[in-house]
Write a structure and sequence with these properties.
The structure holds two protein chains of two kinds. By secondary structure, chain A is an alpha/beta fold. Chain A is built from 13 helices and eight strands. Chain B is of the alpha/beta class. Chain B folds into two domains: about 180 residues, Thiamin diphosphate (ThDP)-binding fold, Pyr/PP domains (Rossmann fold); about 130 residues, Rossmann fold (3-Layer(aba) Sandwich). In chain B, helix 3 runs parallel beside helix 5, helix 10 packs across helix 14 and helix 11 packs across helix 12. Classes of the chains: A alpha/beta, B alpha/beta.
Chain lengths: ~350, ~350
Amino acid sequence: MSATHTPRSPRTASRPNRQAAGHRLALLESMLRVRRFEERCVELYSAARIRGFMHLYIGEEAVAVGVNEALTDDDAVVSTYREHGHALARGVPAEAIMAEMFGKVTGCSRGRGGSMHLFDAGRRFYGGNAIVGGGLPLAAGLALADRMTGRDRVTCCFFGDGAFAEGEFHETANLAALWGLPLLLVCENNLYAMGTALARHQAQTDLALRAAGYGMVSWAVDGMDVFAVEDAARKAAEGIRAGTGPHFLEMRTYRFRAHSMYDPDRYRDKGEIEHWKERDPVEGLARRLREAKELTDKGRTALEDRLAAEIDRAVEAADQAPEEPVGDLLKYVTSAEASRP
Amino acid sequence: MTATRTRTAGPTAPGDRKTTYREAMREALREALRTDERVFLMGEDVGRYGGCFGVSLGLLEEFGPDRIRDAPLSESAFVGAGIGAALAGMRPIVEIMTVNFSLLALDQILNNAATLLHMSGGQLPVPIVIRMTTGAGRQLAAQHSHSLEGWYAHIPGLRVLAPATLTDARYMLAPALADPDPVLVFEHGTLYNASGELPADAGPVGIDRAAVRRAGADVSLITYGGSLPKALAAADDLASGGISAEVVDLRTLRPLDDATIGESVTRTHRAVVVDEGWRTGSLAAEIAARLTEQHFYDLDAPVERVCSAEVPVPYARGLEEAALPQVGGIVAAARRAVGEPAPTETGTPERPPVTGREG
């Protein structure tokens, strides 16, 4: 089975030239940070420095980076187990994420979460949820609290096409629309629920169409185009802030790597993967910026060097960081334990 | 004696207030809603219907639909929404109609509420209270009658409460809401209509300790929730036969108050655990194991357990009664423990087999 998306949005062909070059370069840097960070993670995983399940976002970077542009520091993000990109885009430091994957006390979850459970309460990043769909009700609750207290905030929940088959999606969509919650539902449709292709797990594969059935504003977006993603997310966030209730964005995207480091990727056609790589969101943007003379070869090299140095520092710091003492095993099971000296 | 002693019976004193378990619960909710604007009640039919068991009747009119929030039949979504709201600074009270239905929200309770604090390295406490009805005795058959609070008591990160008295129904909610971590409150369905006098001096209670509801010297009946009235009735029966039974009400099922349980057994040297859950892998099993670990040399007899029969709770009255712990079974177990099997009892006084076929 060869899986493809047919983008419905006509605005992917040409972009309004209203964004400053600096903004476009910042988007490239943000996406490239995710890409290079994860490439380093692969090396570290192969070297057994990172263990457990690790799910790579490579290929989907435009979604996290583009959506984040529509969010403020006061907004909240709820994520999945494929959340390195969401965390980095949100501003969680690479050092804290790397240390978490090394299982160190300086990790953003003090070594208790690993790759799938990155948290940063200060940045309102409510974490990697490894139960497919499990973050959706929680996101509705964050939005409900804002609604009840009159706070002008948006809660953004990322989830995949696999989660669209979970009851949690449908329960949450109904509840959020019913109560008009300020919730941005971002479905990262990468065409596979682990190894099962979309058409093998959804009776109706037009997810935006189905979400619209809950009375939410919904549409599909070319998730390989960071401008299209940013534009859609801004429109949705504006609608939410204007009080028109939850919005649903189906981000049509693709992961270039296997589901996880354990996945032999037997269920996808190599040609399909290569076809999608032609639409690489990172290199696609770099190409456009070069063509627009906004990015020189020298500039690209400098950017790569800067990111490599940042990731080097993250790995070095993670390497040097102490582990949590085993005596603190039970710490944080309850608040009483957490406040124990 | 460190356990809380709470009056459950006795002469009416001036100032005592006639109430029911249901009304006491409602009064606790009303107080919470009045004193803390972060508190709201959310669940199926809590508003216009007045609560499936009538607990929240009238609260919608007093506090409005924002704070007495009728939810769609989406246990996972509204329990999860309660967790999210708690993370964002609210103090939600989520009502689930019965513990059987709570299984639809088990993922949220276990994988989010109980886990987030630890998994986030201490960043995300979840101050939520989740109330639900538990237990059998009303001929509601298997899907409305089970006692699964023992499952929840298995889960680190949760506090599990089982108010069994009017005083606890009235006063356990406030400390539950003050707890920074998730608290589950199990209300036995047969208790809602329990009526009596709320003592004039009844006031704030703790949620850390078990309570000795009746002092005794010969055997400890250790129980909680809907089985407390049965254990107290059994103690009356035993007293008429010259056996002095102490009744310990666990009140908090997690964390268990080992000290109060242990002190009681250290005095009586015999223990009967009464638990409406199924015997295998039950809370009763946990208590029996702890007693043998911590008080092996204090015990003069094997720990007895009176649990539900290992069967989905049936509808027919006779079958349902046979499936549940009953006063007669508690009395018989206590008599076995003290070595005085009832004279009317036929056959051998041995303990029942532990294969799970028996109740």
